From TrEMBL, chain A:
<feature type="domain" description="HupH hydrogenase expression protein C-terminal">
    <location>
        <begin position="27"/>
        <end position="139"/>
    </location>
</feature>
<dbReference type="Pfam" id="PF04809">
    <property type="entry name" value="HupH_C"/>
</dbReference>
<dbReference type="InterPro" id="IPR038527">
    <property type="entry name" value="HupH_C_sf"/>
</dbReference>
<comment type="similarity">
    <text>Belongs to the HupH/HyaF family.</text>
</comment>
<protein>
    <submittedName>
        <fullName>Hydrogenase expression/formation protein</fullName>
    </submittedName>
</protein>
<dbReference type="InterPro" id="IPR006894">
    <property type="entry name" value="HupH_Hydgase_express_prot_C"/>
</dbReference>
TrEMBL record, chain B:
<feature type="binding site">
    <location>
        <position position="64"/>
    </location>
    <ligand>
        <name>[4Fe-4S] cluster 1</name>
    </ligand>
</feature>
<feature type="binding site">
    <location>
        <position position="235"/>
    </location>
    <ligand>
        <name>[4Fe-4S] cluster 2</name>
    </ligand>
</feature>
<feature type="domain" description="NADH:ubiquinone oxidoreductase-like 20kDa subunit">
    <location>
        <begin position="64"/>
        <end position="210"/>
    </location>
</feature>
<keyword id="KW-0003">3Fe-4S</keyword>
<feature type="domain" description="Cytochrome-c3 hydrogenase C-terminal">
    <location>
        <begin position="230"/>
        <end position="309"/>
    </location>
</feature>
<dbReference type="GO" id="GO:0030313">
    <property type="term" value="C:cell envelope"/>
</dbReference>
<feature type="binding site">
    <location>
        <position position="67"/>
    </location>
    <ligand>
        <name>[4Fe-4S] cluster 1</name>
    </ligand>
</feature>
<dbReference type="InterPro" id="IPR006137">
    <property type="entry name" value="NADH_UbQ_OxRdtase-like_20kDa"/>
</dbReference>
<protein>
    <recommendedName>
        <fullName>hydrogenase (acceptor)</fullName>
        <ecNumber>1.12.99.6</ecNumber>
    </recommendedName>
</protein>
Length: 155, 367
């Protein structure tokens, strides 16, 4: 097992034949779809998600697409049911979201056209519980009781 | 635990410490798995929250275990996730720990306690009622008797692999064991065919996930295949299709066309008459698929593919049917019913009887 490199065993789709420089023409329609989605986002705030794994990409198509989109300033990682890697592209509002399993295998690879990818936002149910969560942690820490001018919790 | 779990999937996942973000991720990847648009993730979340794990009985008959091997390669969900989170797999020869009478007792218990609600998954063809039952038995009982007994109170039957769906290799001429498909034998239950030799693992789990999420069977084509995965031909989704359109073909496996990655049509590719999801879902965790590896599609998800002419001869079509009819057969929307099943079986037989090789030029004229 020690000589077995998991990263080589589970390459990203399309990466195996990246040597191919041939143009299969499948990146361009996706780029046009992204353009239309961006227009909708700017005009009405409507968000769009594109599942790249449902695309009939040939060798090199995915690399060609991501190369055109480029790399932006933001990278994020969410640890929930395995890692999810988020990369802003050079186009603001266009995000690459790579859902991976606990074994770091790709589950889904999507493009989100949104101000912020959905998985980065706190869930509304979690947000509703945030004050109670903070109060509980404050209480557990004992900091509020130890403070010189401690006052009873407002809640 | 044989009895259908009392907890919903949402409750069960929360008990396991799954966060709401984790649940959202599960729904996003489930949408991808079911070949649904990512925008449906919220609807999937609402459905999964209330879903209950169905009891599943997996029957293996005249098969090579390749379909189970394929299932164990599923990575989203993994086999472990499938068994522990999505379904209650109560009987499976190869995977279960129990054996002998204890194994059969598990099947009977699951049937009794989940009457009318359990799913039956079948891989392998079945020697028909008129065949010698000795060709394939389990615990001393014929495959036919076990199948009919088990499906009697099932909610639905999923035929996994081309052998279960269409008879497959055991049914190839001269069909020495009298092999029949599940839909040849089961007439009064919904039958979903998930053909392929083997099927793509994600398609197997995708069909189960669809039943779990929506509580009903997916939309099917005339051969009872889920349209979400079998709705388009390999040819139409093939990344080499632009070369076909330009008339650029590999003529041999070692010529310049092959090296350039041109269309494999003249090397016998059955992509134009084959409906499957290989071109998008691919194999080995989405790494590649036969055509990307330089080999023509064999058409393994189609009826009678073993008897449909040489694998390396240009595609054959039944001359008595127009190509439009043939190409449309898989894409045509279907509903579950005996009438359609009978039509499909009849067409399968007609197709096999009338297949004639045609030249590329002849086919292109028809297309």
């Amino acid at each position: 097992m020690s000589v077995f490199d998991p990263a080589r065993a589970h390459p990203a789709p399309g990466a195996t034949c990246a040597r191919s420089a041939r143009e299969h023409g499948h990146a361009l329609p996706i780029l046009h779809e992204i353009r239309h989605a961006l227009e909708r986002l700017l005009a009405s705030g409507e968000e769009t998600r594109i599942d790249l794994q449902s695309m009939p990409f040939g060798p090199g198509d995915l690399e060609r697409l991501t190369a055109v989109l480029g790399q932006g300033e933001v990278q994020a990682r969410v640890e929930a049911l395995g890692p999810t890697l988020i990369q802003e592209t050079a186009i603001p509002g266009v995000w690459l979201v790579d859902y991976r399993s606990l074994e770091d295998q790709r589950l889904s690879y999507q493009i989100e056209i949104a101000t912020l990818p959905e998985i980065l936002r706190p869930r509304p149910e979690d947000l509703a519980e945030s004050l109670a969560a903070l109060d509980a942690r404050l209480s557990e820490s004992g900091l509020d009781a130890a403070a010189p001018n401690a006052s009873p919790s407002s809640s | 635990m044989r009895k259908r779990p009392d907890k919903t999937l949402g409750e069960s996942l929360r008990d396991h410490g799954l966060s709401r973000r984790g649940f959202l991720k599960l729904c996003a990847t489930t949408a991808s798995l079911m070949a649904l648009p990512p925008s449906l993730a919220p609807a999937i979340a609402a459905a999964l929250e209330q879903a209950r794990r169905p009891s599943v009985i997996w029957l293996s008959f005249q098969e090579c275990t390749g379909c189970t091997e394929s299932l164990t390669r599923s990575h989203a969900p993994t086999l472990e996730d499938l068994i522990f989170d999505f379904i209650s797999l109560d009987y499976h020869h190869t995977l279960q720990a129990a054996s002998g009478e204890a194994a059969e007792a598990a099947r009977f218990q699951a049937m009794e306690e989940n009457k009318g609600q359990y799913l039956v998954i079948v891989d392998g063809s079945i020697p028909g009622p008129d065949a010698n039952p000795g060709f394939s038995t389990v615990a001393g009982h014929s495959n036919y008797d076990i199948l009919m007994e088990t499906v009697e109170h099932a909610a639905a039957v999923i035929a996994v692999g081309t052998c279960a769906a269409f008879g497959g290799l055991p049914q190839a001429r001269p069909n020495p064991t009298g092999a029949m498909s599940v839909m040849d034998l089961v007439r009064d239950k919904p039958v979903i065919n998930v053909p392929g030799c083997p099927p793509i693992p994600m398609v197997i789990t995708g069909v189960v996930a669809h039943y779990l999420v929506f509580g009903r069977l997916p939309e099917l084509d005339a051969y009872h295949r889920p349209l979400a995965f079998y709705g388009q031909s390999i040819h139409d989704r093939c990344y080499r299709r632009p070369f076909y359109d330009k008339g650029l073909f590999a003529e041999r496996f070692d010529d310049e066309g092959a090296r350039q990655g041109w269309c494999l049509y003249r090397l016998g590719c059955k992509g134009p008459t084959t409906y499957n999801a290989c071109a998008t879902m691919k194999w080995n965790d989405g790494t590649s698929w036969p055509i990307e590896a330089g080999h023509p599609c064999l058409g393994c998800s189609e009826p009678k593919f073993w008897d449909a002419g040489g694998f390396y001869e240009p595609v054959s079509v039944p001359l008595t049917l127009g190509p439009t009819t043939l190409l449309g057969a898989g894409a045509a929307g279907g509903v579950i019913g005996g009438g359609l099943a009978a039509m499909a079986r009849k067409q399968v037989k007609q197709d096999a009887a009338t297949r004639q090789p045609v030249t590329v030029d002849e086919l292109e004229q028809k297309l």
